[in-house]
Amino acid sequence: MHVNKNIKKLKPYKLSTHKAWENIHDNDVLKLDWNEATCPASPKVIERVSNFVQKGRLNWYPDVANNELLEKLAIYTGISKEKIQYFGSSDYLQEYISLCYLDEGDTVLIVGPTYDNFRVTAESLGSKVEFFYLDEGFEFNEDEFIKYANQIHPKFIYICNPNNPTGTLIKKNIIKNLIALFPNTMFLIDEAYYEFAGESCASLVNKFSNIIISRTFSKAFAIASFRIGYAISSEENIINISKVRNSKNITQLSQIAAVAALDDIKYTENYIKEVNTSKNLFIRYLMKYKKYGIEPVDGFGNYILIKINGGHKNKLLTFLESKKIYVRDYGHVFGMEDFIRITIGTSDQMEYVQNQISNYLSNL
After folding, report:
1. HEC string of 15-39?
2. HSE of 80 in the Cβ direction (CA atoms, 13 Å)?
């Protein structure tokens, strides 16, 4: 069989370790490598999903036009439901967006280092991907970005905000300025971690037609297994993306889980507060070990990027795995060979991680 020419040369997205799943039945496993929530789903989610499994119409295709979910998303986002659509994960959404707006040979500009999935999708369609990299301190230089964008004339710009893995947050007024400066360029703002930062570009869709926001229920809402996300954009963009969206692919269980999660916002808000508190405490803890070459990067997501100098990063990773703590190694990314990323959990969970790191460092 002849493979698509773009697939032949495609460098795939590198997954994190699968080892946590090998120990899934152990109660003491800490999966801190993919930035999922470390708490259970809301009790309302568990109750309603269980009820549907027992009494619902599992023999039917899912609801292909869940107006209740759209209305609740409209309330949650403050955006009219005509400018919102739900999808089977934000990854799928971004693939649909690529199908709608990218052609062979189009230039895509990505602010990096960042989540790599969109790069894979764009290159699989034959688009040319260029990167604008954050500076050494992982800060975004607006003037240099504008200069570079004017040089390469991208059709599409991808910005993860807050950025994964650096935690960098580009302020809304800066993104607004960029969107206005490049009216013929489509901007995809990935707000997977919006809830932890508390700042969104959602309201910009009421003024600009060249912005699409992608969001997910996988992080703050603790329902990553259900694979559901949503888009916020102009009505025209939502209509266009919906042309290639397979509405049967968003399972009924996912829709039920999303509605239930939105009905229990307080549960999510309490978890977000817990994570942000434990993150600050964890950073304060790590700062005490600078003499060991440990340098945390403060950010706005539910994770911390950590540089580990001194050549003992891999030994620490092995030690943590022996304690069933799984974190993300960025050794495969050029320029980030000494970095790891740790998802932030509850205060109790992070205190356990701290104790294990201290145990490791005490034996150096």
Report:
1. CCCCHHHHCCCCCCCEEECCCCCCC
2. 7
163 contacts 174 by C-beta, under 8 angstroms: no
Q: State the pLDDT at residue 353.
A: 97
Predicted structure pTM score: 0.95
Length of the chain: 364
pLDDT tens digits along 103-140: 999 999 999 999 999 999 999 999 999 999 999 999 99
In the block, residue with structure tokens 């993306």: 241
Q: How far is residue 272's CA from residue 255's CA, in Å, rounded to a whole number?
A: 22
pLDDT of 349 strictly over 70:
yes
Looking at the chain, list the stretches that DSSP marks H as alpha helix, in order from N- to C-terminal side: 5-8, 19-22, 43-55, 67-77, 90-101, 117-124, 142-152, 172-181, 194-197, 235-242, 252-262, 265-287, 313-322, 347-362
State residue 1's pLDDT score. 57
> How many other CB atoms sit within 10 Å of the CB of residue 162?
22
**What span, in angstroms and rounded, lies between the C-alpha atoms of 350 and 297?**
16
CA angle (191 as vertex; 186, 192 as ends), nearest 5: 130
Task: Give the whole-angstrom CA distance, residue 284 versus residue 274.
Answer: 16
